[in-house]
Structures are given as C-alpha cells and as structure tokens.
Fold this sequence. Notes:
Layout: E1 7-9, E2 14-16, H1 27-32, E3 35-43, H2 48-58, E4 63-67, H3 69-74, H4 76-84, E5 88-91, H5 104-122, E6 128-129, H6 138-146, E7 150-151, E8 156-157, H7 167-175, E9 182-186, H8 195-212, E10 215-216, H9 219-225
Parallel strand pairs: 3-4, 3-9, 3-10, 4-5, 6-7, 8-9
Antiparallel strand pairs: 1-2
Helix pairs in contact: 2-8, 5-6, 7-8
The structure holds zinc ion.
Residues 41-42, 92, 96, 132 line the site of zinc ion.
Amino acid sequence: MIFKSIIEKTFHQQTITRLPTPVKSLGDFGKAARALCLTFDDGPDPVYTPALLDVLAAYNAKATFFVLGEAAKQYPHLIERIVADGHSIGNHTFSHVHPWLSSAERARHEILATSAIVKQITGTLPRWFRPPYGRMRLAMHQQAQRANMTTVLWNHSIIDWGLLGGTAGIRTRLEKISAGDIVLMHDGQRDHNRPDNLLRFLPDFLSSLTEKKLYTWSLDGIYAFQPDKYNA
Length: 232
Ligand SMILES: [Zn+2]
C-alpha cells in the first residue's frame, strides 16, 4: 500500500497518529504500463504556464499542475485552460508558506482556501496535495487528509532552479526519466525557478518518449486505474 497513514477513528473525531507516507512514484503499475507523471509546481504563471501548455498539447502529453491558491485566484483563466487541456490540478497551498513555519491554523487556511478557489474555477475540489519544498509536517498533512487529498511528492527532480538549474543539467536529468517516475518541474517563477531553461529542452524530451515507449499520464488518469493505491 503506497499511502500508509495510520488513522485512529473514533465515533466523534478522527485523529491521525502517525505522519502519512506520501506517494513518491507510480510503483510497479507505472513501470508495467510504461507510464510516468510530469508535475509542474508554483504556478499558474502568466508567461510560462501557457508556453508549457502549448508544448504539452503539441505532443499530446498529460501532466499535473500543483498550483498556488494566490496565483490561481489571480489567473483563473489559466486554471480553466489546464483543465480544458486534460491535465490534473493539485493543491500546493495558498502562498507557498514553509511547512515548518506554519501553525496548524495557518496550514488549514492555506489548504482550504486553495481548494475553494480551484473548486470555484473548475467546479471540482483537487484530490492531490504537495507541501511547499516537499517538506512533510504533521499539521499540514492532517489538513490535507481531512480535505480528502492524497499527498504526492516525487522520485525524480529535474532541479530546474538555482545554481543547478542550468541548461546542461536540466537536459541530462530529463534524459534520465524512466517508467514509473513522478517528475518534479516548475512552471511558476518563484524561488529561483528556471522554467525558461526547462522550456528549451521539454519539446525534445517529449518527442523522445514515443521511441522510448513511455507514456505521460495525469495523476487523475492514473487514479482512474488504481484508485485503491491513492486513497488516504
Ligand atoms: Zn513549490
């Protein structure tokens, strides 16, 4: 079982007693199906999200966007387009607050406000959650679980930010993607992200997938085949 949360259920309340284990890869199912999940964090961004969506559409690739509530609120048309293009939406908190600096009450607001904005735009609550910086903290996960979301991290990062986010490194790490991977990338520009460098190599990478017999899926697409593995 991928999501190993231990939950104590009483008649009146639900208490989570252990930090849940997040989904980090697609496991055996992904390997057998030659499937992989591309994920883009910190958007939507008015410059890079449309550019990435154009590239994904050109190669009929499906992905998942872990969006910030504050950006979704500012650019609702980009959320609409992500969904219209067949991709999944995940919740990445409202303002990208560091989980270790967030009170339980702040975590609750960050998560619920973001889900409410996504629902207002798309009509559907997100069922995927990714904490900022991938940092696991109990208070934040309790809130995500209570909002019926599965926490998804990654097993392969393109490191498209900071000093390592140059073009050579990004290209090398894109080439190393293999079946079963959940891949971390960024469309938002915060925290020294380099979606501009990513965009230079994404078309070549996507065009190589047919030859490698690899198939991109959205998380909702994977979930449709394996719901039991992703229920908290
Ligand atoms: Zn982030």
